[in-house]
Design goal:
single chain; mainly alpha; Transcription Regulator spoIIAA; 5-stranded mixed sheet; 7 strands; elongated
Length: 562
């Protein structure tokens, strides 16, 4: 397996390096509070959020190819593993952290396998519709999970619906100071995001609340703070997890793997297209594997290509991974010299920051866009969104993949069936097929809009028979437009041979047009060429029409000369 390094960094000119350095400082000021907040979702110590933007950023900069993708803590993957691991160990305990580290290492291993076997195409099985629904569901789940800390009430369960109920019945006993601080933080960040998107409002809020907490003794007034945060750089260590526990983590790691592949690939493609740059998806997968391996060995948790942080980096002017390396350098300074004041940070403030992240994940614009274009796909997105808080994050992503595949299979099973029919604009045009239609007296030009396989073969045959049986005049010529058919399997080939034999008995002449070389090879292998005759199969539609005796000079028009 060959690979190149530093594709996302080089070439780097001095002037561009200065711009990227400034962008990295801006990115750090905006994102340090967020990565601290992600630990509330992950159920890990606050300092691990800083670890996610240390070695992971360096690992991706070294091995990845995208110049823009920011790989760091992500709410979706954090929600996936925390909801599962909380049933295996107490959240935040030493055993829990060991499980988190092993999960992250397994995710890195899956990503490495994906690079070796070039499995990046697996990202395509999670449709954009399902992804919008899934992230919306995660946003709801995370928002509800932060509510107990924001209101200062108790909620022991990790299940979203039970948490919501606990908050509801705990409202008479809420802590007013926690609620007041939460309201101030949420309002400040959301208003700042709306009116001054480039201003590091989260950082200002965090610094201000730390100062206020230290000066006004928030802890003495019953406001819970995060407590002492260990300083210094993380040490490298191997997670202490049994073989049985490792096997139990495999499904969760698989879910994280799918989300990382899908979300990172989608984000890197968008920015590569925007900047007219080439992106090597296999190299990015290797970079993601290195990033997660670095996270696992330094006591952090799963990292992902983050759309929100990538957007922040882009808005700050970042044009290469050098900005992310500067970001990592700032984190080193924070770890070495600035973790002391973090002990004054109230839990409700951290929860409120995460709540604003969750609000941003609820993609109302995306759902509206889906509704405008496809009501069926909106249903898929909403079912996926509801599944996450109702049955779980891991189950939600599996459902999202399943629904995406079912929708694809359904589309292939029931594709558009067209017929060339008379038109007011010209002799013939493609129209949705219906009984009683024909192309011309005695002629039907039939177009099936999908590959032929065992599930839709009967539909292909039944629709052809129905058109022939209900044609206004006796059908003598039947031309199959195979432009949308790229593949045919054993079962469908058998059904096609049976149809050809039936039409031959009925003395209907058959030809096939727009047959690709690959499809013709399949037809030969399955005996369809022998059944129809090689002289009746053509790469162009007008050749097939001529083969059944149609005078194109009198009957045809440019649209069929394909």
């Amino acid at each position: 397996m060959s690979f190149r390094i530093l594709q996302g960094l080089l070439p780097l000119k001095p002037r561009e390096a200065l711009k990227d350095a400034a962008a990295g400082l801006t990115l750090a000021s905006m994102n340090v509070p967020q990565v601290l907040g992600y630990t509330r979702i992950a159920g890990t110590p606050v300092v691990t959020g800083l670890y996610t933007v240390l070695l992971p950023l360096v690992g991706f900069a070294l091995f990845g190819s995208s110049r823009h993708l920011v790989v760091a803590a992500d709410s979706a993957t954090a929600a996936i593993f925390s909801s599962s691991l909380s049933h295996m160990a107490a959240v935040g305990s030493e055993k829990y952290m060991a499980l988190v580290a092993m999960l992250t290492l397994l995710t890195a291993f899956f990503l490495l396998l994906a690079r070796v076997f070039k499995l990046g195409f697996l990202a395509d099985f999670l449709s954009r519709t399902a992804l919008v629904g899934f992230l919306t569901g995660v946003g709801v789940q995370v928002g509800v999970a932060m509510a107990p800390d924001m209101f200062g009430v108790e909620a022991d369960s990790r299940r979203t619906l039970i948490q919501a109920w606990d908050v509801l019945i705990g409202l008479p006993h809420l802590h007013r100071l926690d609620l007041a601080l939460s309201a101030i933080v949420v309002a400040a960040i959301l208003l700042g995001r709306r009116f001054t998107p480039h201003f590091p409002m989260s950082l200002v809020v965090v610094v201000g609340m730390i100062a206020a907490s230290a000066g006004l003794d928030f802890a003495g007034h019953g406001i819970a703070t995060i407590g002492q945060v260990p300083g210094g750089l993380p040490s490298l260590r191997w997670p202490d997890v049994s073989w049985e526990e490792t096997l139990a983590l495999l499904p969760v790691a698989g879910s994280c793997f799918v989300m990382i592949i899908a979300q990172s690939a989608a984000t890197s493609r968008v920015y590569a297209l925007r900047h007219r740059e080439r992106v090597d998806e296999n190299a990015d997968i290797l970079g993601l594997a290195a990033a997660n391996a670095g996270a696992a060995l330094t006591g952090a948790f799963v990292v992902n290509g983050s759309p929100t942080q990538t957007a922040m980096a882009g808005n700050a002017g970042a044009r290469s991974q050098f900005a992310q390396l500067v970001f990592a350098g700032v984190v080193v300074i924070v770890l070495v010299a600035l973790t002391g004041p973090l002990r004054y940070l109230p839990h409700c403030v951290l929860a409120s920051i995460v709540f604003t992240i969750a609000v941003g994940m609820i993609d109302v614009k995306g759902l509206k866009a889906i509704r405008r274009e496809s009501a069926g796909e909106l249903s898929l997105a909403l079912v996926t969104a509801a599944a996450v808080p109702c049955i779980g994050v891991e189950q939600g992503i599996l459902l999202a993949i399943g629904l995406s595949l079912v929708r694809h299979v359904r589309h292939s099973y029931r594709p558009h069936i067209m017929i060339l029919a008379p038109s007011a604009l010209g002799p013939w045009e493609p129209r949705e097929a219906a009984p009683g239609m024909e192309t011309a007296p005695g002629l039907i030009v039939y177009r099936f809009g999908a590959d032929l396989f065992y599930a839709n073969a009967d539909r292909f045959v039944d629709a052809a028979r129905e058109l022939i049986d209900h044609a206004p005049s006796s059908t003598r010529r039947f031309v199959i437009d195979a432009g949308a058919i790229t593949d045919i399997d054993f079962s469908a080939a058998g059904a096609l041979r049976d149809l050809l034999a039936e039409l031959k008995e009925r003395r209907i002449e058959v030809a096939m047009g727009r047959v690709s070389e690959a499809l013709r090879a399949d037809l030969e292998r399955h005996g369809v060429v022998e059944a129809l005759g090689a002289e009746k199969i053509f790469p162009r539609l007008h050749n097939a029409l001529e083969a059944v005796g149609i005078d194109l000079s009198a009957a045809a028009s440019e649209p069929i000369r394909q």
